[in-house]
Fold these 2 entries.
Entry 1:
Amino acid sequence: MTDATIAPAGPDQRAAFRPATFADALRSEWTKLRSVRSTFWALTVTVVLGVGLGAAISAAAAHGYAKSSASGKLSWDPTALSLDGIGIATLAIAVLGVLFISSEYSSGMIRSSLIAVPKRGRVLAAKSLVFAAVTFVVGEVTSFTAFFVGQALIGGHAPDAALGDPGVARAVVGAGLALTALAVLSVAAGTLLRHPAVGIAAMVAILFVLPGIAQALPDSWRNPVIEFWPTQAGGQLASVYHSPHTLQPWPGFGVMCLFVAIVYAIAWALLDRRDA
Amino acid sequence: MIEAHGLVKRYGSTMAVDDLSFSIRPGLVTGFLGPNGAGKTTTMRMILGLDAPTQGSVTVAGRSYRDLPAPMREVGALLDAKAVHGGRRAFDHLLCLALSNGIPRRRVDEVLRTVGLEDVARRRAKGFSLGMSQRLGIASALLGDPAVLIFDEPVNGLDPDGIHWVRTLMRTLAAEGRTVLVSSHLMSEMALTADHLLVIGKGRLIADTSVDDFVRSSSQQSVHVRSPQAAELAAGCREAGATVDAGTDPDVIEITGLDSAEVGKLAAAHGIVLFELIPVRASLEEAFMELTRDSVEYQAAGATR
């Protein structure tokens, strides 16, 4: 401990400072994200689950291909199979996204953050953008790796896909894009709900529980619900074969993005209005 | 300079802050004093834009906090030492805050050295004691080298050495011409650190005064007397307009409203033998408790008066 001085910057040198910018907020949020260990682990789980599960699903499906029915062969989608693991790996991104902001509420860090950046919309925008960018990179790495590993396992046992085939490149890139939209949704949900456990529960409900319940509904209810359910609709971007009662890839992704935008707008308004 | 005009904060039916107006000047340490629950923290949160006032307004350097272009360069604040993500290293915690206001990385090392945490800069904050957390919070307040500093109970959890250090720091900051607002529920602490006092109770302003004036006006004096004729002396004093409190010992009385010389003369005039005649000065702490207790009683008994 030195004596009580805050040298070398005395009051005389204080004069010059520039206004804080959005770029400053981005640098701050990037530092927040990379300086906690949970980020590394969640992203590792995303890659490992996305690639590993995709490989297991691809291998199992390829071995069953010969014995499958004619309609099964007709809807054979080796691309979607290899990317199937990402659907589960999504959970790691959702948890990390919720925690990225809700852990600030549970620890009290949010007060330090909002004192540093009282323009609250800027905090949310910077957080979302940083997390979306990181998820996009990790998501694309995962989907391309999962695709190539999956096709290698399918090839020889069943028809496999190549990136040049119609719709395949779009599906592989699309798996990462859908994951990115989900990343923004989870940050917004964390902002809205503030408690880590509540936020994670909400994301699990949106991703798995509610679509699962919808499967039990009579067809006339189930089909439109599943068709327009945001995460299901967004997932169409990662399929090459178009199954009935689902949206086309890009309109489906549009529904997902619209849902994310609505949740994000509510989160923004509440963050701005509520006492922190 | 911090200025509040008719600040009100209501939570449901509870008035946390009730029509508070004050102005806090640069170059002084202003003590913000009140019992727990008086509304000190709520007021500070409103100054810092964390809570929106129900009515009224507060400005820092002439602007509402949310409109400051580089807040940390103008205002440094320590509200809650535990407002830190426990999984983050001390250095990274400060770096996150510094970057958000365009403050260079080397400044983080400087403030860590200033608060004496350079050796634990790479440790994660969850292992910090309350005292270390307070130092980290003070470091974050100093990052932007601001002209206005706000500290909520900064000596909580510090050892005597740390408390002395914080006092010296506050005095130094004020001597450099900065505005320093420090809250505490301990009058004794403020008497050693502050030049000026804002005293609040139940959300209302009770006193806005210099520490010297406060000490002079509110240190109530009484006279402690031991005498075999205590009852006789008590009667005499009451006649002279004083208040007399009798203790459990029938020979001992406490007289307020007369000084020791007057009591001595009165005793001589009545031929009363005195064994002890001691002037008693109430401590600052007692004076402060007296002041805030009055404010509480005033509110509670308001209807019957």
Entry 2:
Amino acid sequence: MTARSAAELIADLNARKVSSAELTKGYLDQIAKHDGRVKAFLLVDPAAALARAKEIDDRRAAGKPVGKLGGLPVAIKDVICTQGVRTTCASRMLENFVPPYDATVVTKLKSADAVLIGKTNMDEFAMGGSTENSAYFKTTNPWDTSRVPGGSSGGAAACLAAGMAPLSIGTDTGGSIRQPAALCSVTGLKPTYGRVSRYGLVAFASSLDQIGPLGRSAEDCAVLLEVLAGHDPRDSTSANLPVPEYSKTVNQPLAGLKLGLVREYFGAGLDAEIEAAVREAVKVYQSLGATVKEVSMPHSKYGIATYYIIAPSEASSNLARYDGVHYGYRTEEKAMLAELAAEQQKLEAAKDQKKLADLDTPLVRLYRQTRAEGFGPEVKRRIMLGTYTLSAGYYDAYYLKALKVRRLIRGDYDQAFEQVDFVVGPTTPSPAFKIGEKSSDPLAMYLEDLYTVTANLAGIGGISIPCGFTKSGLPIGLQMQCRPFDEERLLRAAAMYQRATDWHTKRPKLG
Amino acid sequence: MPDHTYDLIVGLETHVQLSTETKLFCGCSTEFGAQPNTQTCPVCIGMPGSLPVMNREALQLALKTAIALNCEIPEFTKWDRKQYYYPDLPKGYQISQYDLPMSQKGWLEIHDPKGRFQPKKVGIIRAHLEEDAGKSLHDEAAGKADSRIDLNRTGTPLLEIVSAPDIRSTEETRAYLTELKLLLTYLGVSDCNMQEGSLRVDANINLHIHTPQGKVPTPIVEIKNLNSFRFIERALAYEAKRQLEVWQQTGRKLGEAGTFKQTRGWDDAQGVTFAQREKEESSDYRYFPDPDLCPVVTTQAEVEQVRAGLAESPRAIRERLEKAHGITPYDSDVIAAQGRPTVDYYEAVAKAAGDGKKAANWVTQEVLRVLNEQSWTLSQFPLTAASLADLVKRVIAGEIEITRAKEVFNDMVANKRSAADSLQALGITKVDLSELEAICKELVAANPKIVADVKGGKQQAVGALVGQAKKRNPNANPNDVRRICLELIEKM
Amino acid sequence: MSLTRADVEKVSLLGRLRLSEAELDKMTEQLARVVGYVEQLREVNTEGVQPMAHALDMHNVFRDDALAASLPRDAALANAPKRDSECYRVPAVLGE
């Protein structure tokens, strides 16, 4: 059962070959069996999922209409608000946060009759590329549980690889769908900015964030994107464009396909096995009739630097709301006030007027202590970095400069897309690394986002599809990026490859 | 210390709450006075994942105001986040406008009907839209060291109107605010209710002190949150005195190392301004463009459309009244200050009565007196313009003498009836000239002493005869009586 | 522009984070490396380039001035760490 694609399962559900309750039970069993090792889920409520499945089954049995997903389970990254269901962003800060509303994508999933099977683990507030930054636990890579699944949507990718859900939704700010998809050998799509509503997505970097589907295949992603996409009057940045029927066209091949290989992607730092696998994948496309040419994106090398100014700047602002006043964590107030009073007494005794003048007020200390305890180290680093780059005297040199380079990066894409349909390259420079291997060096971790951040900066779409394994059996991802709102053709191109190869059908062996 | 003369330099930042039904970025009500925290939603309390969507009406009201303030409307404007931490600011930033406001470079003409200063144009540097913060309530009754936060007001649309430092006195300050308030009321963009916080003022003030070496500017002080005209006048007067004293003691002037713009509050009970606790870092607002909101593009055609639909400004109305009805600037000011309904009422009276000046006297003196005494609005006033005009016409025709006319007016108001009915009820009819002459003859004959006085040159002595005539017939016109008696005495 | 410990201390107040002495040291070292890296943008010629703050070139997105339901007060306050039946509560903010 869990080997079948989402599209096949929906067909089975509608043909009543399987009930939603049976299917849901099947995935819950997989979770019970494997999640102790994979640790992809932050929250699973089997009773609620089964009740919902049964409700859909009953409706179908009564001959009433059933939505597009027909009772198929879907896992949701825990950065997306679910009414009445705890939404933590993998942070202590939101440990007890229960949203009073659903994100627009959750509303859409519910009305399409998805069964929400659980909330998946991630890097805290989606900041990271390994899911090691979760405040709760580290998710492992089902292909090698000593390694990271990637991130920040690590749980979203790992639960698919481990067969614990047929579909999941993630978010991608700098590669957070595509990179874990590559590292876990699943398919993950970051749609064009504005394609999917961000309403209810807890913001990391608002001008870069985008929700997208992860599945076993491009076809599965097409099914899910069709449900997620569309204009939302509650999101001012959502595009008012019609939604193509992705699921209907995904299996139609594209003729005369023109692919662009980005010269700058194949330089130093790219793992040789990954390079070989990507070049092999390009040959597959050529065998399917595609023409391939080299394109240059001269500003892509500035992607990381640009990204690590813009994303933390926006994050420092978006995360200012976590101050222990209106929702979320607050430090233990009495102890905090007592400590502050003691500091004051000590300074008064020492007659240290300078330090006394600088001493936090109770309110400022409440904020600082709350945030010190509620946020993990990576979130703090990015708040600090973003606060610095927006602060007086530095704004022009960092933030404004980055916005200009961002425009140049977009210009590179525009030029490339005048010549080719899709820009092709590796999703990541290296395969999944060992848990803990890079956690002491933030900059080294940031450099892993080399190939993915530019799509977010430019606002364009990108997909990662499985294209092989290293000799040691670690998955490799092929990234294809498309013109704005060209997901329909991007999915068709990906599906072409997947019909010609079987990398995406391989499953890890979990004891 | 010698006394110093100085120029008072004032610039005002006025925050005006725009009259929308809903908040700037969400559908919550802006109505004043609701129970705490009953008018909030995920958007205005900044819940994780929520997003703002701009209220079209707020922009329209802001455009109206900016255009009426003679501002330039740039084609492109955008939203920025102004970042600071405060419990009544749930997102940790205020959505505002920084370097590209929706309007700039306008002016507002101010004048003083009493002529204490020449009419002048006060520059408007900019007017921009922003969202309001919530309210912090200090809970002393509970005996706890807690503040309570009410977010009902959070996200209410404000227009911040920043004047140039062109204001030179407390009179000019009052005139600016009065004129601005009146303009906003005429445009219908705000109720300007200061008690409810719909109009709040921050004042920037310093002095240019005259010295033998030239004018010396003192450091600029911003006095925050002045929520009544009286507070503003008192605070400015106090602050001018304080700055002069500080300068006399320290000699510190604007721009000197170690001086910076200080923020002070106003304590009305003590009658003093006081320094607000502020750390250097708190002014680093780290503005940047709000990625959740799209920029706004306003075409010239749209600007012209708004301009064409603007209500007539108080200034234009005053000019029109003076020109069309020949009234004094003082009267036009009084009438325009009452608002559009009074202007329309006055004009109807003036037209129907055919005498703008007399109509103005009646409206500014009698009508406004009654409204004031009764605490009525014009809509509660019982006399129609036609009815009042009828009375005015009768006075002009000499049918009623003026002191009796006021009696008639009061009767018309009290009993909600026409002039004719009041005249009848009060028994007021014009006295026949022959009857009046008969009365006068009798009086002259009966008062030889008065006759002698008048003949002796004391013309005013005839006044006693006027009084007697009114006793015999209350409708006797005093002017007629005086004239007839004098004629009779002369012939004697 | 190199990032100093004093800068980091100042930024920690601006960003309302309380950092221990050891954390300040570590943060200074880590941020200095990242800031050093991002400074490579200085070599890019951006003369005449318009800043790109939004991924999509959209403008004039409005909603009508129509009332929508507010949250019931209990729901609005439900996630507050400290509250009473009407309001959020914080340590006294008098004079701040």
